[in-house]
Write a structure and sequence with these properties.
With about 280 residues, the chain is an alpha/beta fold. The protein has 2 domains: about 180 residues, NAD(P)-binding Rossmann-like Domain (Rossmann fold), CATH 3.40.50.720; about 90 residues, N-(1-d-carboxylethyl)-l-norvaline Dehydrogenase, domain 2 (Orthogonal Bundle), CATH 1.10.1040.10. Helix content is about 45%, strand content about 15%. It is built from 11 helices and 8 strands. It has an 8-stranded mixed beta sheet, with helices on both faces. Strand 1, helix 1 and strand 2 form a beta-alpha-beta unit. It is globular, with a radius of gyration of 19 Å. The model has no long low-confidence stretch (mean pLDDT about 95).
Length: about 280
């Protein structure tokens, strides 16, 4: 299927990254969120990110004005009435995602493929809401999106081979590769990562080591670019807690029990980079 116009729902950190990467790949993009203030912030962030990309990649040609010109910032879903593909990036909350996908199903044309950018929510469950379950696919982008070359692509129970091929085609246009996995809670990346992060929080809670010491061991002993607690701050501690709670509920396995310190930090509003303080403090 020829993909020309791509909708991106949610102009947070992930939506900004996905929208930027699509525009850099030459796609016409509609970035949708609930108000103009959020969209104005998204436009500023994308402009800044493109300038930084151009600065760090001097051998790569990039017309910032033309790239931004391929993005329409909007609050009205009617802009998606002729979209070929949609990537949904709203918060990891089932009721919110449900409402968005019902709206997309009503507005998007019959051929549109809809991707769920999620770390834990069932692709099969989302597909069951719609009249197009074979065209619902998971695409778990990693943050920061423009810098990550690989995307976890999740096949729901009804997801067709044609939909998988279309998702891979879209990713190839963004300069990315898709690795296809099956629809089980947490998929591959989060089923492993959330356990690692949660156990790292237990280490801090039990005073085995400080956050800095835990991260240093993972970076200097294992060669990780970021430690698990730096990664948690980047993702957002509220998102980490929600994901581990979904895994705990889904598998009924005590190994996924959320660390009390993680719950306490989220209750205190310490969500990481997104609001300036988590395991580390950010200016």
């Amino acid at each position: 299927m020829a993909i020309k116009k791509v909708g991106v729902i949610g102009a947070g950190v992930m939506g900004i990254g996905v929208g930027q990467s699509l525009a850099q790949g030459g796609y016409e993009v509609v970035l949708i969120d609930i108000n103009d203030q959020i969209l104005e912030h998204a436009e500023r962030e994308i402009r800044s990110n493109l300038r930084l990309f151009k600065m760090l990649n001097k051998g790569v040609e990039l017309d910032i004005a033309a790239t931004l010109g391929r993005i329409t910032f909007a609050t009205d879903y009617e802009h998606l009435s002729d979209a070929d593909f949609v990537v949904e990036n709203v918060v990891e909350n089932w009721e919110i995602k449900k409402a968005v996908h019902l709206k997309l199903d009503a507005i998007c044309p019959a051929h549109t493929v809809v991707a769920v950018n999620t770390s834990a929510i069932s692709i099969t469950r989302v597909g069951s809401l719609t009249k197009r379950p074979s065209q619902i696919v998971g695409m778990h982008f990693m943050n920061p999106v423009p810098m990550k070359p690989t995307v976890e692509v999740i096949r729901g129970y009804h997801t067709s081979d044609a939909t998988i091929a279309t998702a891979k085609e879209l990713l190839a246009g963004m300069g990315k590769k898709g690795v296809v996995v099956q629809d089980m809670p947490g998929f591959v990346s989060n089923r492993v990562l959330m356990l690692t992060v949660n156990e790292a929080v237990f280490l801090v809670q039990d005073q085995v080591a400080s956050a800095e010491e835990v991260d240093t061991i993972f970076k200097e002993c294992f060669g990780h670019k970021m430690g698990p607690l730096e990664t948690a701050d980047l993702i957002g501690l509220d998102t980490i807690l929600y994901s581990i709670e979904v895994l705990y509920e889904s598998y009924n396995d005590s190994k996924y029990r959320p660390c009390p310190l993680l719950k306490k930090m989220v209750d205190a509003g310490l969500h990481g980079r997104k609001n300036g303080k988590g395991f580390y403090t950010y200016e």
